[in-house]
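Action item from last week, closing it out:
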Amino acid sequence: MVHMVVQIPGSPDACPDWAMIELQGDLQSRQDNSLHGKFIGDLHFTKKGVPVLIIGHHILYGKIVTLEKPFVVMSKNINTKANDSMETDQEMDMQKPKGIDYLVKAIVKKKLVFKTRPKPIIANVPKKI
């Protein structure tokens, strides 16, 4: 099972809503490289709100599911107290953290589930030229 996180546009709240993508199976590249940070495919929604994922020459249709317990995406900030702006880099490195803050980046409330096998995209080729 593969999980990815995407941002949902048009969230009116101050904290943006994100959605998790769940794929049944594995995503493999032709090379043995990691897929982290790489372009995988296009995510679209039909007029009825059905998510459509296009990966290469394959298309997947999914559904939107509300998570039982939402996830929070946070970033960790370590605060150091700087009394004098003339401190050297060594003094800044030797300071101990005075506190840790967590900033909420987003809330993941929904997931897009793609359970079905991908269908090949075949171009409509005329039989007679």
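Closing note: The chain has a mean pLDDT of 78.
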